[in-house]
Design a protein that fits this description.
By secondary structure, the chain is an alpha/beta fold. The chain has six helices and nine strands; from the N terminus they run E-H-E-E-H-E-H-E-H-E-E-E-E-H-H.
Length: 233
């Protein structure tokens, strides 16, 4: 096995992904596109994970690395690699597969319930999870389900929360990789989301952190379960 983790910004790191890789002694490398790092050859990789970030998939002029990443994703999918996209990463996979990515009707910031579809409940990576469970969200865009892909998790008002394409390609709008420390850092880094002049999130920073303290332990267990299944492909 040889795992590649693609970062888009310094403060949105791999969290539980790296923890699980270290636990299992699985070789991995991190490519931080923000620093100008070049994507490696797809050939020698077994699993590829694309993390989140504050940019949008349609901002290629502002973030030119998104163009190369799009081609890289398409090659990885065509070669049958195990691919996971989280938040922005899921939106990038949807775009690479020809689906539309666009502004969601609302921003989701904080803890929200998602529900597995019938296909999701039968999915080998998700079958250990409850039918409905809380996840941590931080996004303003959403995606259409690509042609040939299956919707595996949904919610309201943003119905497209996760999809699977083929047997090995997964897009998750939500963050199963987060730790409490990561959420605290995002609260500080993206503090403008909570300031006057912005459409306010439905939850305050204090409410989100109180909920995080109650839910993070169970969320971590579920995240590790999902990642163990993903790396077992």
């Amino acid at each position: 096995m040889n795992v590649l983790i693609v970062k888009h910004i310094g403060n949105e790191g791999p969290g539980l992904i790296e923890y699980r890789l270290l636990q299992e002694k699985i070789p991995y490398q991190i490519c931080d596109l923000e620093t100008g790092a070049r994507l490696p050859k797809v050939n020698g990789l077994s699993h590829l994970i694309f993390l989140g970030g504050p940019m949008n998939v349609y901002e290629e002029d502002r973030y030119p690395f998104l163009r190369d990443e799009d081609l890289f994703m398409k090659e990885a999918i065509q070669r049958g690699k195990a691919v996971l996209g989280i938040c922005l990463g899921a939106q990038l996979i949807a775009k690479a597969l020809g689906a539309r990515v666009f502004k969601a009707p609302v921003k989701e910031i904080g803890w929200y319930d998602v529900s597995l579809t019938k296909m999701g409940s039968q999915d080998p990576l998700l079958s250990d999870l409850p039918k409905t469970f809380p996840v941590f969200q931080w996004h303003g865009d959403t995606f259409e389900i690509p042609n040939g892909a299956k919707l595996i998790a949904t919610s309201s008002p943003i119905s497209h929360q996760a999809f699977r394409y083929g047997e090995k390609v997964y897009g998750l709008q939500f963050h199963l990789e987060v730790t409490e420390a990561m959420i605290r850092e995002w609260m500080e880094t993206y503090e403008e989301e909570f300031k006057d002049g912005q459409p306010p999130p439905p939850f305050s920073k204090a409410e989100i952190m109180a909920e995080t303290e109650m839910k993070i332990e169970t969320s971590i267990r579920r995240g590790i379960s999902f990642l163990t299944n993903f790396f077992g492909q």
